# Entry
Amino acid sequence: MFLDSYSIARSDIIGRAWIAVHLTGFMVIGERGGWQQKSTMLRDPGNGPFS
# Structure
């Protein structure tokens, strides 16, 4: 019982950290390249980091 609740709490923390890291990464991309360039990359994935 204790191990189950501990592993659930741990996966929740990891999930929140993963989300925070990715949101921060997108914000850095937006500030570094400008919001216009970011929206262009999102519309055309071939030119972006997801190709």
In short: The mean pLDDT is 68.
